[in-house]
Amino acid sequence: MPAIEMEAVVFDMDGVLIDSEVIWRQVRTEFCAENGMCWSAADQESTMGCNTAMWSRIMVQRLQLRARLGMDEAAIAREIKARLLSKYQARLPEREGAIAAVQRVATRYKVALASGSPNDIAAHVMRVTGLDRVFLAATYGDDVAQGKPAPDIYLDVLRKIGVAPQHALGVEDSGNGIRSLHAAGMGIIAAPGPEFALTDELLALADGCIGSMTELSLDMVRDIGHRRAGRLRSRTPG
Q1: pLDDT digits over 112-151, tens only?
Q2: N-term to C-term CA, the chain
Q3: Same domain for 219 and 126?
Q4: Are residues 180 and 197 in the same domain?
Q5: Adjacent-strand bridge partners of 114
Q6: What are the UniProt keywords, alphabetically (predicted)?
Q7: Residue 161 and residue 167: Cα distance in Å, rounded?
């Protein structure tokens, strides 16, 4: 069986391209503190990678927002998005080496974005970073019915660029994102940030792991294709 030739690399945004998971946690924590509630690390982790419909539902349920504040999913989504965009407009927290990594990978492979962020937030980040001129396609959280960990968002963006899942890999920092890639049948590079560690179980699903986006290289992408081909070969009856 020949080596699997990688054709595309799909990037997550929050936590991969920008250090935004900390900002998401901050705005939710501030909202809760202002209203006599608590937002825990476990609460935050449950929302990572989710689209707006999912994380707003999680917030309403976990914080009992209907009973406490009379807020439904649409109301909390508007509140959190407004707070987040305000912070992004003040300072966009780019992850070190991330923009250069996308540009580097784009010299050899198709690159695309699969972000669970709301469409308007993700589009703002793409414009500010200039990555809207680098990515061939993007699918945002509001574009799909099911967010991560379902595979929909990755399968949708791969359809847009005409690449089969076995010929693509994704770069993800969260458990929901890694599960989404695994369900899509793609290669996986785990890129966890210092704030949210990944379990050994999640790391075992990944084909590679990097501590910094500066470590993402063209050789790594190529080698993952070779290793995935080797595993498929070993599973094929002789």
Answers
A1: 999 999 999 999 999 999 999 999 999 998 899 899 999 9
A2: 12
A3: yes
A4: yes
A5: 139
A6: Hydrolase
A7: 12
74 lies in the same domain as 149: no
Whether pLDDT at 102 is above 60: yes
> Quick one: 138 and 179 in the same domain?
yes
Q: Which residues pair with 11 in a beta bridge?
A: 113, 171
Helix residue ranges, H only, the chain? 21-34, 41-47, 52-63, 65-69, 73-90, 98-105, 119-129, 152-161, 175-184, 200-203, 218-235
Which pTM value belongs to this model?
Answer: 0.87
Residue 37: partners with Cβ closer than 8 Å, 6 or more residues away: 63, 68
Residue pair 98/109 in contact (Cβ under 8 Å)? The answer is no
- Domain match, 77 and 117 both: no
Rounded distance between C-alpha atoms, residue 1 and residue 15, angstroms: 36
Angle at 90 between CA 177 and CA 70, to 5 degrees: 65
